[in-house]
Amino acid sequence: MPKSNDGGIGGAMNVNGYTILDDKNANILGLQGGQAANLASRIAPGKRLKSNVPKLKAAAKECPFKDKEICMVARRRILRVLEEVLSYNLFTEEKERTARRLEMYDACFELGRACNQARNHEEAAKYLKKARNGYEEELGRDSEKTLEVTLGYILCTTWNIDKDRVEKLTDLVKRAETSLGPEKVVTLGSLSQLGTCLHGNGNFKEAGKVWERCVKGGVKGRAKRVC
Prior knowledge:
Elements: E1 4-6, E2 13-15, E3 18-21, E4 29-32, E5 35-38, H1 48-61, H2 68-87, H3 94-117, H4 121-139, H5 144-157, H6 163-179, H7 185-200, H8 204-217
């Protein structure tokens, strides 16, 4: 496990020689071998935070760390900054406030993925659930983002041979096919995972039928990994 020092949103965090946030809440940085990789522009207090949110959104999606533990810590820090931005109540229009909340849920989703890849499944489930609930409230139960994070949450919280996973994936496939169509990545990913789960439970014939639907969808049973 990496050694870390988390000083809170205004403090420094050092993990295995990386500085994730400096003590003045000025930069999100990744430092390795004396070279700094900026993840976000300078974050100043007050209204300047407002103009930096899009850059933080990009940072959440483009975190360059290869170390899974470091990536998890960096994404957690990014989420905290986005949450702090929202706490300033800088946004007067509801449309803008909604956009900022969605950015925060995007960061929750990315953090959930990073936690899952680092095998921190309890934390992953917590953040994926938060993202799912947020997307559902803002975008609707059967929006693409809600369905995508729901797939990740199912995979994180159930076992491959668990019948509960089969039931949840079957329901998710129906929702995705109805609202998104049979060729969308989320639909195909759900089908692919359902086929894998059925195969693991010994339902080889049904698994084959599901994978055939993936082939017809254009991915030949291999869809984009979502978690």
